[in-house]
Amino acid sequence: MPALHIEDLPEKEKLKMEVEQRRKEVKLQRQQVSKCSEEIKNYIEERSGEDPLVKGIPEDKNPFKEKGSCIIS
């Protein structure tokens, strides 16, 4: 199936697609950014103690820890 390029469509088809997209967007439930950002901040803060990027990985559970050293004699 060939790729669809918007530039290749007639103007009427482009407008139909735009109207269809606008209808979908109108149905979306919107929330204030101030409320959403507060919820995201709280979510992150609640889980920061479990986050290995913040807390670090214990040496005994670190899968990337070197198993041993190489000795060249």
Describe this structure in words.
- It is a lipid-anchor.
- Belongs to the G protein gamma family.
- One of its GO terms (cellular component) is heterotrimeric G-protein complex.
- With 73 residues, the protein is mainly alpha-helical.
- The protein has one domain: Transducin (heterotrimeric G protein), gamma chain (G Protein Gi Gamma 2).
- The chain contains three helices and no strands.
- It has helices spanning 11-27, 33-47, 52-55.
- The N and C termini lie far apart (62 Å).
How is the biggest beta sheet arranged?
none
The overall strand count is: 0
Give the C-alpha Rg: 26 Å
The portion of residues forming beta strands comes to under 5%
CATH topology assignment: G Protein Gi Gamma 2
Spatial gap, N to C terminus: 62 Å
Number of helices: 3
> Uncertain regions: pLDDT < 50 for 5+ in a row?
none
User: Helices and strands: which structural class?
Assistant: mainly alpha
- Estimate nothing, just give the exact number of structural domains: 1
The protein's oligomeric status is single chain
Outline = elongated
Average pLDDT taken over every residue? 87
Q: Please, what is the CATH homologous superfamily?
A: Transducin (heterotrimeric G protein), gamma chain
Quickly name the level 1 CATH class: Few Secondary Structures
The share of residues in helices is: 40-55%
* Annotated CATH architecture: Irregular
Q: In sequence order, what are the helices and strands, one letter per element?
A: HHH
